[in-house]
Amino acid sequence: MNANEAVPGSATDAVRMWLVERTYSDDEQNMVILTYATPDGERYFRKERALTSFSDVRDTTAAVDAASSNVGTVDDPDDRERYAAEAARMANAHDPDDVI
User: Which portions of the sequence form the region Disordered (predicted)?
Assistant: First the structure.
């Protein structure tokens, strides 16, 4: 599937994004930031998650289908290259619904 195509079986404005980065927030304790990107590395989607307790289980999947209105453009060429490489690695190694 082309990174600009709609995801089959989902809303027409959904874009398939692959997990490329997981970082912890410097500003807030117990916050993890998940960054997903298109296979070409040109667009990204971020999710912030509060790690509230050990019993609060929320799976992180290899890919998400993000609304195109929630997707940003990656301006930095180095980030685009890094995101593209990691998105390709994830897409080759995992099914979209695989828990990471």
Answer: 69-100
